[in-house]
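F.,

This is the one I mentioned.
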């Protein structure tokens, strides 16, 4: 959420900063800005351009003279104050000689703003970040490092930040506390960014700052130190990343590209983790030996958004296969209700970014109370991954679209592996284990089969897009599928989409059913199929249009419905195959309505604020 870039070296900074911001735009896209240090041989000056709107609007409005070989930039997702030009970063002090970009939230900004105002400082924005610019400017420490450290000593909260100062034109000072910051080492030039996506085109030699760390970047290198200015030993290493995986390539959007990458991502998450001999899964990174796995009495899954819904799918898988009580809860709610932390419970944090602050803080709360947490995380080395006792990486590759697709699929498979491992040290027989191992192996191909039906789904999507309001319904294993389907649909099409348990419709929502309110129903061929079909008749009898996701052979009788058959897996694994067409429907509904599917309004990819 929000993106930071910075550059110092021999090239003109502004084009590089704008390019980097474009690559971070999914993290926040309501306003953007850049600052460069210019002034040639005379006295240096800081020049700032910032405005509400997209990075491309900023690029178009950039003054012709915006030269400088050192600069910082920011793309914003508003927290303090609306998306206006004045609230866009970089922020500066009264002299205009300091510029600051900041991700995160300063908890005591209100108090500091009041104090500064009392002391005669005129604040020009509604942001928390602006106080930092003033605090840096007011410090009289002899070095920029000292000034930034003094400012940071006065604030509470989270930050990833970068500071320019016209009196110290040979450097950029950056700091991290709770919001990621990476330094990219180039040839006589240095980059900084809050996400690898902005660096990979320039360098894959990268240093990750730790919380509480600061760094100074000059054209020739970087040094790292703590906030008390004592040196730290953080070094850069070469990452194995494919820069092309951060581009949409020939695809019209990242979401479509990422949907189509699901078969390959599914294969990667399974690779090397299935054991044919004992018909189980090997998840060495969990750090759970057989005895510990057997001792688990409960599983509690925590995540946010789509990660929470797939967590519900995971809970059902674990409970069914391992016969351990399991449930999922929104991490944002969990951590605020003073949860009882039980030593026999295995806590599982699930997150694509590994940065979602609610998930991160839930992990910290559990560990603080002595609980054991494992992570299902996509981004290697991310905060959640580092805070957990163990875990498994999802290997989905970079996910850029705000709406999660391939990461979600790998999360589901991660849960299936975890369920299998827990089940096979308990009561699941080797024959049953084999049934699941075989079914897991077949999934990537089956996901591809579903994606091959995309063309058939477009007409259905267009019809659904016409409705102002829709229901997504399912039962037991199908309910989280419906929740995820509704989430995808609403977040990118902006239609009201509500998920409900099919069984509960008659207790209220049936009142809303009419020819104008379609229902998308999840009806796998399982032990509930007859009950599900009966409930659909109740919808049809009230004139509600129906789209039914089901399996070939399921008899819908004389039900007037648009039918979408998905390939069969084993019933425990069916939810993921039922989820894929819902992504495709949401995608084409949004595209038909002319929305920017990768950047839905008001949202951002990684939610690093509470
Ligand atoms: C945001 C995104 C969702 C995502 C959720 C959790 O709300 O818009 O698509 O599911 O964050 O993100 P995480 O990175 O923790 O999986």
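My design for it:
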């Amino acid at each position: 959420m929000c993106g930071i870039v910075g550059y110092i070296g021999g090239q003109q900074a502004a084009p590089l900063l704008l390019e980097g911001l474009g690559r971070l735009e999914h993290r926040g896209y309501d306003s953007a800005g850049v600052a460069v240090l210019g002034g040639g041989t005379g006295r240096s000056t800081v020049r700032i351009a910032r405005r509400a709107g997209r990075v491309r609007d900023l690029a178009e409005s950039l003054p012709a003279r915006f030269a400088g070989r050192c600069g910082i930039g920011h793309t914003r997702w508003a927290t303090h104050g609306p998306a206006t030009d004045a609230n866009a970063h970089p922020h500066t002090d009264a002299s205009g000689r300091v510029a600051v970009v900041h991700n995160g939230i300063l908890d005591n900004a209100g108090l500091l703003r009041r104090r500064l105002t009392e002391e005669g400082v005129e604040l020009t924005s509604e942001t928390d970040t602006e106080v930092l610019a003033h605090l840096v400017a007011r410090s009289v420490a002899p070095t920029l490092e000292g000034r930034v450290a003094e400012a940071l000593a006065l604030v509470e909260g989270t930050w990833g930040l970068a500071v320019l100062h016209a009196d110290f034109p040979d450097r950029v000072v950056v700091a991290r506390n709770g919001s990621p910051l990476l330094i990219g080492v180039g040839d006589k030039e240095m980059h900084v960014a809050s996400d690898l996506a902005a660096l990979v085109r320039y360098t894959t030699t990268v240093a990750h700052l730790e919380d509480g760390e600061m760094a100074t970047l000059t054209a020739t290198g970087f040094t790292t130190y703590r906030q008390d200015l004592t040196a730290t030993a953080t070094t850069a290493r070469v990452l194995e990343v494919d820069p092309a995986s951060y581009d949409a390539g020939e695809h019209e959007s990242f979401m479509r590209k990422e949907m189509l990458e699901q078969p390959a991502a599914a294969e990667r998450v399974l690779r090397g983790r299935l054991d044919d001999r004992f018909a189980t899964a090997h998840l060495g990174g969990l750090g759970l030996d057989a005895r510990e796995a057997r001792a688990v009495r409960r599983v509690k899954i925590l995540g946010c958004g789509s990660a929470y819904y797939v967590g519900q799918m995971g809970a059902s898988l674990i409970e069914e296969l391992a016969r351990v009580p399991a449930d999922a809860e929104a991490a944002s709610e969990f951590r605020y209700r003073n949860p009882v932390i039980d030593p026999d419970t295995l806590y599982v944090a699930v997150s694509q970014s590994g940065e979602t602050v609610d998930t991160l803080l839930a992990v910290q709360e559990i560990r603080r109370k002595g609980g054991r947490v494992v992570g299902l995380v996509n981004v290697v080395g991310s905060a959640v991954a580092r805070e957990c006792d163990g875990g498994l990486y999802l290997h989905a590759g970079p996910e850029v679209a705000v709406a999660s697709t391939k990461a979600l699929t790998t999360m589901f498979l991660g849960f299936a592996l975890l369920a299998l491992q827990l089940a096979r040290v308990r009561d699941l027989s080797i024959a049953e284990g084999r049934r699941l191992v075989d079914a897991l192996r077949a999934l990537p191909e089956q996901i591809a089969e579903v994606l091959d039906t995309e063309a058939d789904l477009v007409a259905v999507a267009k019809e659904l897009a016409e409705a102002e309001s829709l229901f997504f319904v399912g039962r037991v294993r199908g309910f989280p599928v419906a929740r995820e389907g509704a989430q995808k649909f609403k977040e990118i099409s902006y239609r009201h989409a509500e998920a409900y348990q099919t069984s509960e419709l008659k207790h209220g929502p049936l009142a809303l059913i009419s020819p104008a309110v379609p229902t998308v129903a999840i009806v796998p061929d399982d032990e509930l199929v007859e009950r599900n079909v009966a409930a659909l008749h109740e919808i049809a009898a009230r004139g509600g249009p129906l789209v039914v996701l089901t399996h070939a052979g399921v008899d819908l009788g004389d039900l007037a419905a648009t039918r979408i058959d998905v390939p069969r897996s084993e019933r425990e694994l069916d939810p993921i195959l039922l989820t894929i067409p819902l992504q495709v429907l949401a995608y084409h509904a949004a595209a038909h309505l002319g929305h920017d599917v990768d950047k839905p309004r008001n949202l951002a990819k990684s939610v690093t604020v509470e």
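The two ends are 11 Å apart (CA to CA).

Talk soon.
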